[in-house]
Amino acid sequence: MGRYIVILVSLVLGLLLLSTTGVTAQQSDYTGRYVFKNYQKGKGGYVNSLEITPAANGQLHLNFELTYLYMAGKAETFHEGSGEGDGQLRGKTLTATLSDGAGGSCRVTLTFNETLLAGQYSINVKSSNCAINVVPDGLYTRILEAKNPPRTGAARTSLQPEVCPDPKSPCKTPAKSFAPYELSFRLPSKLTRGKTYESLPFYAVILKTYTEESCDADDHTASIERERLKIQTEYPYNKVFASYSCPNLDAVDYSFPGKLDSTGERVLIMTFIAVYAGKTQAQANEFLGYVRTVYPKASLKQMKASYEILDQ
Fold first, then answer.
1. Are residues 282 and 177 both part of a single domain?
2. Residues 138, 164 share a domain
3. Model confidence over 22-58: pLDDT tens digits?
4. Do 45 and 76 reside in the same domain of the chain?
5. What is the spatial distance between Cα 106 and Cα 62, in angstroms, rounded to a whole number?
6. Total of domains in the chain
7. pTM (2 d.p.)
8. What is the rounded CA–CA span in Å between residue 248 and residue 260?
9. Range of the domain at 173
10. 1 found inside a domain
11. β-sheet bridge partners, residue 253
């Protein structure tokens, strides 16, 4: 009798262990957006993105958007490809067959690795028998996206003045129409003339600075704006914004260490292109490392955006 009790207890403990292990595995959330980028201007390279979403029967859906840039003589050109498919996660490995919707397919194996930041992952992608125009192979890093605070029924004016870093979902308010090149932030529905409204602090990476500009498009310089729009395609989930020194009393201003000289009277950095890097320094440092693979002189700044209605 005692022997059967021991066996029964062992079986129960085994089932509990399996159940606990299963729960732990389910807690790993690999859904989100990832990017692999080794492109260098004048040398070419890959700019690939991957989005992972839940699929039926506990599977994960993969959606790759792929670009390979290369030099043809002195001109830069590119190939594009895409593919999507479902796969079942087994441990930290997922295998799936991608389809480009035009008869091409590609077998991929994804291996998930947790980074130093809890809950953040990198993915090593390897392919075989790939015929979707651009191979998806590479080490993909998860894109850190800021989430808007949940709606609680409170008035909009009670919301924290956070920036809206998603280029596809800018902040909107009847009191201010943000320009395409501005980083928008939450403002009250009614503004007081002469009062300065500031955003909460955030981190951004300054990619380029300019000492001269023509202001040939009234409130901005057309050539710099074209460059900003091109850079925005490289960071589809983080707003790329610009600051101009052109006469514009309705512009958003950005404050950060190093913008002014030691006296606080002379502006050292007026015209620049920057990209949103995150709310926390840990997020920003990780994003900076990614950006410097293309822009080695990029610098990280903690900023605040501000706006004031001035008499015109």
1. yes
2. no
3. 434 445 788 888 989 888 877 888 988 899 999 999 9
4. yes
5. 12
6. 2
7. 0.54
8. 19
9. 160-308
10. no
11. 306
